[in-house]
Amino acid sequence: MKFQTRRKPQLSSLSTALFILCVGVGVASAQEPAQSPETKTAEAPVSDRVRTLEEELAKQNSKLDLLQKTVSQQQQAIQALLDRLSSSEPRVINASPTTGTSLASNASAAATVAGGASQASPTQAPTIEQRLAKVEGQALRIGPFRFSGDFRLRADAIFRSASEPPDPPLQHVQNVRARYRLRLNFDTDLYPTLSFHGQLATGAINNPLTLDQDFTSTTVRHPFFLNEAWVDYHPNKSIQLQAGRVQEIFADNSRFLFDDDIRFNGFNEKYILPFKKNGAAVTSVEFRAGQYILTNPNVAVIASNSPLAHAGEVVGTAGRSANLFHQGVLINQQFNKKWGDQIGVDVQLYRHPNQILLASTAEGLTLLIQPGLGLALSGPLAGSGNATTTAGGTLYTAEGFDIARLSYRLNYAGFKIGDHNYPLTFNLQVARNLGTGLSERDAMLAAVQFGRITKRGDKSLLYLFTIKGANSLISQVTDDDLGTGTGVNIRGHHLRFEYGLAKKITFQSLFFTQRAIRSSGDFPNFFVPLSAFTPRTYRFQQQLVFVF
Q1: What is the DSSP letter of 380?
Q2: N or C terminus: which one in the chain shows less Cβ crowding within 10 Å?
Q3: Nearest Cα to 216, choosing from 247, 179, 248?
Q4: What's the rounded Cα separation, in Å, for the pair 114 and 528?
């Protein structure tokens, strides 16, 4: 008997054909119980065909088993490669606490960790973005080094009107300029517990408070100097030791204690004591300390006409170096998924601080700065502003600088509008110079920031208010944008708006206003560069930040 079946285009596999043939054979057997020898002879080719198809199907199954085994081996190889990339991923060491509110610092931090990627949980496979970030990190390697950096284009305008009678005559200020900053980071892991970090940066060499380079000097090439260089020893997650030209251990880029561009030669230590999340609000306590060498006079015996004698050093003794010792503790708390805060207490102890003021004079430049550089600079270091015993003198009015600070930061995870996050941060800091009993020894800062830039379309707004007395902080190391022309003896306001143009491109608008607090002669032996009668200073900056 002949059995005809309609061909279905969609049933094209071998298993489907075998099923059709088997059905046909079964129907034939049911309809003709008694078969003649001729019929059996006719069905013999059908059985051979079924047997052939079964053999082909067995071969296909064998090939499928082999293919599955190959795919499994390839998946294991890929997973081993991902594990190897994870183990060789650079360990990110953040020398500054998370109290910062400046995006410039965020750009710097993002440039430092450009080769890294966040780790997935042990029970969750890495996402495509995480795998891509790891591949990008490997692509940034050239030999043993990982490279990153940032570039900033800035328009900077400073305005101040002239004084009016009966105030002493004071000329107006008008400085509108274009500037840029380029920083190049290079990092390497020497061992799993030992790494190296270096950074090259632009900027005038006699101004440690800025890395900006003005659009000036006709067509002369601008300098590019070593800005950071340290080794980092981290035997475990709790201990971090650094040595070299380092970031200040309590630097938070808040425009209060230190300018965000300043670096120190010396040593940093940090120990983190974690707490288990057993209902306690405190999640970790950080003990931090820094020891910095500021000068090396190399004077065996101080003569009466020595610049060190003019800075208050004892004639006939050896010239001692100026130092800064900074130590304190940070307490981190996480109340729930939305709310957390940080409380900090620290003390800065300056030794021979008048040498810092001396370096801002011509004779101090020759003794303390140029021998270490091997270069003859065009002028002394910038940043003076503290009260001195004489006009333009080399002795601070404050007998010493032992500065105690209390800081508090409140973090709220915020909310989302569309796919953009808007966290909220409040920061309060107060400081007092315990090294003097004089007036104007206190300083404070209050800031609130709404939003954070992480991707295109993100927005952020910051407002900051500060008061810095003339004897409170050392002007040569504090912020120079918030305090234009003087870092202390000011009352200032700062407003900043940021917009994410792309993942690694940010537009920023910054506005500053500043007034001096006290005038020369308000107290005995009290002279300041800018007196209270100085008209209000306005500063406006617009800039594009590119991170690579």
Answers
A1: P
A2: N
A3: 179
A4: 44
Beta bridge partners of 467: 444, 491
The distance of Cα 328 from the centroid of its chain, to the nearest Å, equals 21
> Is 476 within 8 Å of 357 (Cβ atoms)?
yes
Cα-Cα end-to-end distance for the chain: 78
Q: Can you read off the two tokens belonging to residue 433?
A: 């110079």
pLDDT tens by residue, 102-141? 434 444 444 443 334 444 444 566 776 777 677 666 656 6
The letter for the amino acid at 391 is A
Burial class (CB in 10 A: 0-12, 13-18, 19+), 101: buried
Which pTM does this prediction carry?
0.75
C-alpha pair distances (Å), 354 with each of 145, 350, 390, 398, 475: 40, 10, 13, 10, 12
Residues 6+ apart with CB under 8 A from 177: 155, 156, 157, 214, 215, 216
Higher pLDDT among residues 16 and 455, named by residue: 455
Which has the closest alpha carbon to 82: 32, 128, 29, 20? 128
Distance CA 544, CA 151 (A): 8
Q: Position 77: which residue type?
A: A
Residues composing the chain: 548
Q: What is the pLDDT of residues 49-88, one digit of tens each?
A: 777 887 888 888 888 888 888 787 777 777 776 666 555 4
Residue 307: strand, helix, or coil: helix
Residue that is written with structure tokens 């002239």 in the block: 162
Return the H-helix or E-strand segment holding 103: helix 103-112
Gap between the Cα atoms of 249 and 236, Å rounded: 18
C-alpha span between 3 and 1 (Å, rounded): 6
Amino acid (one-letter) located at 243: A
Residues 6+ apart with CB under 8 A from 209: 259, 261, 262, 382, 383, 476, 477, 479, 480
